[in-house]
Give the backbone structure.
Amino acid sequence: MQNILLIVGSPASGKSTVSRAIAERSAKGVHIPVDDLRTMVQGGVIHPGPNWTPELIHQLKLARQTATDMALSYREANFLVAIDDFWDSFSQLQEYTTLINSPNVLPIILKPALSVVLARNHARKPPSEFRDHMDDGIRMVYADLDKQETTLRSQGWLIFDTSNDTMEASVARILTLLETSAS
């Protein structure tokens, strides 16, 4: 049975880049970006912001359920699956509880230093109110992860500080983890 990787973190933590690279390096690999599932909604899409409305929470839940269903279907077809999603301080990703409790699922949090993530965010977004909002969201995620780290580790989450990693090094660390967990 192939693995499902649930790779999460703050915006600009490298989760999409790493997830895509892992899927590309697999003989049969699929990358499921939850952001893409959410933006498939054309009419009435709601993006995370300062106010978490019931409709936003519903849309996030639908996207995460779809990602879970896709992951299980692709795994059944012998694909390695890499789901990427942002750490949601509001739900703490409880939508994935059933998936995480399934066999061969590795929940991973990419958590480079806050200063590294803020620098990445600034490198990819010009100064604006939106970038400032993203910075605030990143800080909120880090405050929550810092507060929850011991509990998350006890629940089986693997937390990687990738501050000094290249993308290749982060991918290699995760692939090595997969190889050792398979033996």
Remarks:
- The chain has a mean pLDDT of 94.
